[in-house]
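Subgroup meeting minutes
Present: P.N., E.W., G.H.
Scribe: E.W.

1. P.N. recapped why we're keeping a running log of single-chain structure predictions: easier to compare across weeks, and new members can see raw inputs and outputs side by side.
2. G.H. added today's entry (194 aa).
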Amino acid sequence: MKEVFYWAIAISTVILGGYLFGAGSAIILKTGGIFIIALGACGISWLAAPHIAGGLGMTFYSGSGKINRSPEQMTRLEGMAISGEAAEAAAELQEILKKSFNLIDARTLLVNIYLNHLHDRDAAKSTMKQFFTSPKHISNGESLELLLLYGDLLDADAERQEAILYFEQELKRGKYSKADKTLLTNRLNALKDC
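Output recorded in log:
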């Protein structure tokens, strides 16, 4: 909400500058208009820079082929866990996540290996907490399954407030579809009613 307010101010500043520039032939109005347009443009650049940098980073770094992220790799690691090499698969997934923090399918697989093969709820919780407490995590439909699973694991009375906090944070922060928002809101209300 705060970002929308800043965007509105920056765009309004540019419009005001354009109005002053075109309002008359006086040099003071033209100069003031140019100055105000430049000020608004700086604000827009400041607001847009993180989004542009994030998009470029994902394009160039993520697509560089430095990490094999193919579905076959996830299938291979899942197969390792099923065949008794769960610890080795988990270690490999941890290395992948060090290089690619927002790789949701790898993080989800790691959590499932911790829960279903290594029977380590604390490691699963820690893996999800590391993700949802980081300012660089993605909040959208991709991470929804992970968020819901995290809410399920935070089932003790002492942890319920933490789950509520994460759900509220993600609803404010995330770019979810209407159906996903409804699902999150319903889950949040259920947590509050417990």
